[in-house]
Design goal:
- This protein has about 140 residues and is an alpha/beta fold.
- Helix content is about 20%, strand content about 20%.
- The chain has two helices and five strands, in the order βαββαββ.
- α2 links the parallel β3 and β4.
- The termini are far apart.
Length: about 140
């Protein structure tokens, strides 16, 4: 079983945050523990994954979109259209459109929507020590 994980880090036009990347890694760990072989769709400046636009949808049982707002816009439509043959999951998303009007996911565990809210999944990611690079204060 194969799964593709996508998010705003999958589009050159996207705006990924550190939280998006941490949540992606968390979701990858969960899926691998469940027995899925995972690939992450990335675009520049990120590397180490597959291109969302060249990934073969039929190769995946699951397509998971993680983090951020998810609206009826061009990039979201591109993702949904490409992976309509997969079981499509939305995780940790903000859904600005009321869910009774639009919910494109087979399974949605949203961060917030017109129906419910959940804590941000990034809070369950493993804490890491990061090097800070910047000028020293005077």
């Amino acid at each position: 079983m194969r799964a593709l994980i996508a998010g705003w880090f999958s589009f050159e036009e996207g705006h990924a945050t550190a939280g998006d990347l941490l949540t992606c890694e968390l979701v990858r760990e969960w899926l691998e523990q469940a027995g899925y072989s995972c690939e992450v769709a990335v675009a520049k400046p990120f590397n180490g994954g597959v291109s969302l636009r060249s990934a073969v949808a039929e190769s995946y049982a699951l397509a998971v979109f993680v983090c951020g707002p998810f609206e009826r816009k061009e990039l979201e439509s591109e993702f949904l259209g490409r992976f309509s043959s997969c079981y499509v999951i939305g995780l940790n998303l903000t859904m600005p459109t009321p869910l009774d009007l639009w919910n494109p996911f087979d399974l949605l565990i949203e961060r917030d929507s017109s129906v419910r809210s959940h804590p941000d999944l990034v809070f369950t990611s493993k804490s890491r020590q990061l090097s800070v690079v910047g000028p020293m204060p005077r």
